[in-house]
Every structure is written in C-alpha cells, then in structure tokens.
Amino acid sequence: MATPLTSPPSIEDSIPPGIRLAGAWSWRLLALSAAIAVFIFLIMQLRLIVIPLLIAVLISALLLPIVSFLSRHRWPRGLAVAVAMVGSIAVIGGLITLAAMQISRGSAGLSDRLAASIASLKDFLLTSPLQLTEEQLNSYVQDIFKALQSDSAIFVSGALSVGSSLGHLVTGLLLTLFSLLFILIDGKGIWSWIVRIFPRRARPAIDGAGRAGWVTLGNFVKVQILVATIDAIGIGAGAALLGVPMAIPIAVLVFLGSFIPIVGAVATGAVAIVIALLFNGPIIAVIMLGVVLLVQQIEGHVLQPLIMGTAVKVHPLAVVLVVAAGSLLAGIPGALFAVPIAAVLNVMTNYISSGRWRSESPSAGLVPGSPLWQTVPSRPGFRRTMEE
C-alpha cells in the first residue's frame, strides 16, 4: 500500500514562533515610530502656534483655581478672569522691572571690573606653569579677532533677523494672551468639543483621562512654583549674604530657570557663580558654588522626591532623560514642556489602561444635565445625537 504524500511545510510553519512574534512587534513599532516622528515634525513646523498654546495651558492650570474661587464668591466670570490675568501680568512685570533696575544700578562699574579681571587673568597665565609669553597671548587674541571678523556674516544675518524674531515674539505673546483668555472663560466648552471628536464609545475613557491629566498638570504647576521659589530664595539670599552684586536679578533668574526641572536651576546657578568670580574674586566664587550645590542637593534629595514625585509621579531619572530629550528636539521650549507633557501622558495612559472609567459614571461631564453638558450647543439635533 502506497504511503500518502505529505505537503511540504509552508514558509510560515518553518519560521520559529519567536521570530514571527518579533517580526509582528517590529513592523508595528516601526509604524508607531513613524507616526510619532510625523507628529513631532508637524509640531516643530507649527511651533509658533503650539508653544504659545502650551504656555497658555500651563498658566491656565495655575489661574483657573483663582477664577473658580472668585466665581464661587459671586464674582462675575469675566471680572474674575480679568483680575486673575491682570494680577499675574502685574506680578511678572514687577519682578522683571525690579531685576532690570538692579542690573542698571549694579552695571555701573562692570567695565572696570571686566578690565581688572582680564588683567589679573593675563598675569595669572604669564606666571602659571604653562610658561606662556606675552607675545603668545597677543597672538591668541589676534587669532580670536580674525575668527570673529571672518564669521562676521553670521552676526550680520543675525542682526537682520532681529526684526523677524521680535515680530514672532509679539505674535506669540498675543496668541498666548488670547488662548489664556478663552481657556479661562470657556475651558469646559473647549474640552467638551475635543471629547466629541472621538467615537462615542471612547468618550468616557477620553474624558476621564483628560480630567486626570488636568489635575496632574495643576499639581505640577503649583509644586514647580514652590520649588522655584525655594531655589530663588536660597541662591539669592546666599548671594546677598556674600556681598555678590545683583542678588535680586540672580534670584529672579533662578526663579524663572527653575521651571525647567533640575537643569534650569543648575544653569542659572552657574551665572551666579560667574558674577561672584567677576566681582568678588575666586574665594567668594567657591563659597557661592557651595551655596548653589547645597540648594541643588536640597532640591534633588528633598523637594523633587517628596513634593514633585508625589504630585507628578515621575521618577527623577525619567525627569532628567525627558528634559534632555526635549532640549535636543526643541531647545528651551522642549526642556520646559517635557516634564508636564510626560507627566500628563503617564497619568492619562494609566487611567485608560486601568479601566477605572468603566466603573465611574458614564462619560462624567458629558451626562445630560451636568455642568459640562450645559456647554454643549443647543442647535436642533445636536444634543439629540449626543444623547443617542
């Protein structure tokens, strides 16, 4: 009796299961990476719109509780928004004005100090073990001037682009103010419109995740202001006690720089050390370095783990890596927005994957009769579609 012929194994059967699984994961990861790359490219191309909008969202997370507090005490909504916005602009303008006044007063003898510092540096190099001669130093200085002259076209093009940069700055400032105004006035309506973009079955998860992310963003802004204030007071007070000039501008600079977690305070603290070296000499600069390191240790080992870690739930190592990646992709704006974006995405992802939205009230905020439901337009057939 003849044995039945068996068909040869197919290609799929000849590939080990591990390779098939790796291949399936690979093309999906490549497709996901391509989508993320296109999304980041579009954001970078639209950065003049995206950056002001993100700044407005951050500021609104800080000002919205103030507006809500005033509204609960029977203030008109428009008046509460106006008071919050004007008050914040007055505080920021006051800090900048105070820093500018201190800089104008402290820069009176800056040229003399620079000349003295250059002369002392020259004397140090001449008497150092490097055994440099004055002719060599003069030759190095001439080479630097020649390099600057050869690259003068870069400076000319930069000067010509100042007008364009100033126009972009003014446009971005106006866009930030308008976005902030509308978010404070009708933030719930804007969010309800965003939720309605998604399929009806996904709206409960999207709405709950967005609300959880908004709470995290508000916690981040509040905690970051607290951390920045502590850094500014610590470094500014140290500079004032050591007699370093322009202590108030240093404190303001540290406060603004601390909004970039970990990295910002280090960079602005380096400015304080350079000013101390320039005006007070190396001994005071070394003590100022110790003050900056002490403040950074308090921030890194006390404030960040206990306060920021609890509010944002992002590991300090992840903070450093995210800030580095953001700065590489988008410079200072990327470093500024990296941590809040990562924290919000982390909370939203955990909320959706946990499935808590299934046990909560369906599409909280979009239930007919709720406050957010009142923001839905009452055009004929619109609410009926939402109720289906």
TrEMBL record:
The keyword Cell membrane applies. It holds the Pfam family AI-2E_transport. The chain crosses the membrane at residues 25-43, 49-67, 79-103, 166-185, 232-256, 262-295, 307-329. One of its GO terms (cellular component) is plasma membrane. It is a multi-pass membrane protein. Keywords: Cell membrane, Membrane, Transmembrane, Transmembrane helix, Transport. It is found in: Cell membrane. GO terms for biological process: transmembrane transport. InterPro entries: AI-2E-like (IPR002549). Its main location: membrane. Belongs to the autoinducer-2 exporter (AI-2E) (TC 2.A.86) family. This is Putative PurR-regulated permease PerM. It comes from Glaciibacter psychrotolerans.
